[in-house]
Amino acid sequence: MHRFNLYEEHKQYFTPKIMGLTAKIYQYKGRQDLFVQMMGNELECFEKPAKIKSTLISNRMSGITTTDTRLNALVNGETEPKNLSEEEITGYYRVLSSILQNHDYIPCKPYYILQLHRDLYSLCRTKDGGQYKVFDRTHKGPFLPVKANDTERAMDDLFDSYVSAFETEGTDPLILIPMMLMDFLCIHPFTDATYRMSRLIAILACCKHGFILGKYISLEQIMEGHWKEFNEAFLDSSEGWHENGSNYEPFICWFLSVLLEAYEAFEKRMEHLWHNRKTKPQLIEEYILSTGEKNTKKEILEYFPDIGEITVERTLHSLCKKGMIKKQGASRATFYVRCKK
Fold first, then answer.
1. pTM for the full model?
2. Who has the most CB within 10 Å: 66, 198, 252, 310?
3. Among 38-47, 77-86, 299-308, whose mean pLDDT is lowest?
């Protein structure tokens, strides 16, 4: 049976190629932290679309589909699932939402992974989640997973090794995470949803170590775009796995390439958001110049409910001082007109 010793094994993968990929990712992570600190509230608009896209694509990769209209209605709570596919899709969305919101409180341990699998099937009337495979199925492909009778022990050993490695100084999560995912897929612990669970575990592990871009970018979408490379990397890395002779490097490189592409996409979004970012006075000025010639403070406040009265008053005063608008009337009858050029 495979021996799990991630801490010792991961040391051999500090290769020039892998170190080059991790260095770029850590640079992007530093900028990610800065973007989140400076524009946290503005980034919220990306969260739900990313979750919906991830839900759609991860299930589609496993042959589970519904229409965009139904998907949106399901995640918005406007309708109930009408078949098994929609039950599984809704379950995935809920589990993903829980991971993205509560990742700091979800340990990477077998009991909690079983709980996530149970939650994935919580709406299903014909399938039960939260338990490992109980019999050995005819498996498609050249790799033979761990037998059902050995699955629980393998999962315990894997995640004991994974957690222990992170408690040891000098470990790199960007190397350990894909190694753990590779082992998880080799164990293939569930009769159904092992691949979907692997994607959820990947997001959980990344978020727990600060790589939180899965909140704003669909990692599953990028994985789908590199699915052929995934299969090739898995076959290359899993060869000799049962005899402890596997080479994790192809799978590590595949995973890091996906993460790097996701960060590149995230950064492009952030740069676009940053360059198009406007201050509240700029928004008020733009509103006045784009509307009719006559505006009141009350109309501006109603249009921008998140902008305070003092900010509006200061902006109007500044625009008057610049000669862009002119104040007329008095008291509640005060209004502002644009000055003719």
1. 0.81
2. 252
3. 299-308
